[in-house]
């Protein structure tokens, strides 16, 4: 797609997070499309951050490490200078538009956009790509996109290894443990759009379970928004409640819709779901997140290289 004297830009997109506790209100306001949160909403979010991070925001650091690791992997696979990574975040600086602008300033004419989310949804990845394409068009950059990579062999292998390692935590109870795959819920209206998100998540889960030799597994949703409209379910807490009533004692959560340690993992699973489980006599463990795992980086890099050939 380009020679080394004029590298292909790689726009690495993710949700974004505040850089400090002082930035939480502005971040939340951006998520709410310019509408400031109520005092109660702001306290709820800041209390969750305080519970997990104490003023340090792991997603920001993780995203920086992921972008740097992807750059190294692309250099290894395609040669140093062939590709150059730029970050573009949905709800924090550098915003998606900032990432595209930085590419334009560097003279990039051709680029690939990829989101740090393996499965496609018109409401998530589709929204990122729309913003990136609009800005790229304004800047005269030809932009190829990676819509999803939910069945990339390196991704499935990395997740399967983590599931196997996670099950080992149960020792003698390993054989009785249930693997609970999870992902961020979205509004139910995506079903009317025949959005591929739910099925792609099931495909990822099936592939990981198959490679890890797991027969006892379920899929559940988590982290639904409070918008007054129905979201995809069942929610993880409802699923755990049902499992407790069925007598399940050991549960390994595998959040295959996420690739990084962040609020939905560190609070929603590690604190809220674990506490909920303990109250019902369930031991809940979680797989290690991918973060900058070399296999995950290879999945991203190979997806970028493939898209740049189109």
Automatic annotation (TrEMBL):
Function text: Involved in coproporphyrin-dependent heme b biosynthesis. Catalyzes the insertion of ferrous iron into coproporphyrin III to form Fe-coproporphyrin III.
Binding site for Fe-coproporphyrin III: 15, 32, 48-49, 128
Enzyme class: lyase
Gene: cpfC
NCBIfam families, per database record: hemH
Catalysis: reaction(s): Fe-coproporphyrin III + 2 H(+) = coproporphyrin III + Fe(2+)
Keywords assigned: Cytoplasm, Heme biosynthesis, Iron, Lyase, Metal-binding, Porphyrin biosynthesis
Enzyme Commission number: 4.99.1.9
Name of the featured protein: Coproporphyrin III ferrochelatase
């Amino acid at each position: 797609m380009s020679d080394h004297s004029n590298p292909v830009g790689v726009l690495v997109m993710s949700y974004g997070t505040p850089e400090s506790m002082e930035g939480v209100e502005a971040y939340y306001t951006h998520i709410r499309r310019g509408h400031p949160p109520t005092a109660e909403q702001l306290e709820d979010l800041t209390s969750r951050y305080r519970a997990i991070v104490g003023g340090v925001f792991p997603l920001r650091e993780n995203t920086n490490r992921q972008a740097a690791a992807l750059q190294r992997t692309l250099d290894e696979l395609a040669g140093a200078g062939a590709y150059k990574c730029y970050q573009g975040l949905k709800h924090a600086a550098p915003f998606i538009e900032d990432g595209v602008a930085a590419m334009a300033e560097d003279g990039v004419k051709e680029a690939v956009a990829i989101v740090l989310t393996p499965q496609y949804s018109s409401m998530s990845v589709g929204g990122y790509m729309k913003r990136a394409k609009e800005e790229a068009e304004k800047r005269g950059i030809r932009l190829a996109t990676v819509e999803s990579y939910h069945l990339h062999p390196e991704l499935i292998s990395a997740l399967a290894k983590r599931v196997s390692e996670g099950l080992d935590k149960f020792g003698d109870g390993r054989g009785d443990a249930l693997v609970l795959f999870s992902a961020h819920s979205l509004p139910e209206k995506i079903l009317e759009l025949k959005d591929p998100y739910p099925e792609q998540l099931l495909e990822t889960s099936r592939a990981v379970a198959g490679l890890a030799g797991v027969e006892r597994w379920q899929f559940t949703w988590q982290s639904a928004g409070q918008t007054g409209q129905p979201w995809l379910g069942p929610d993880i807490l409802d699923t755990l409640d049902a499992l407790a009533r069925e007598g399940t004692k050991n549960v390994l959560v595998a959040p295959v819709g996420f690739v990084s340690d962040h609020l939905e993992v560190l609070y929603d699973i590690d604190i809220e779901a674990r506490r909920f489980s303990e109250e019902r006599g369930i031991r809940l463990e979680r797989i290690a997140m991918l973060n900058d795992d070399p296999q995950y980086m290879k999945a991203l890099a190979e997806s970028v290289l493939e898209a740049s050939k189109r």
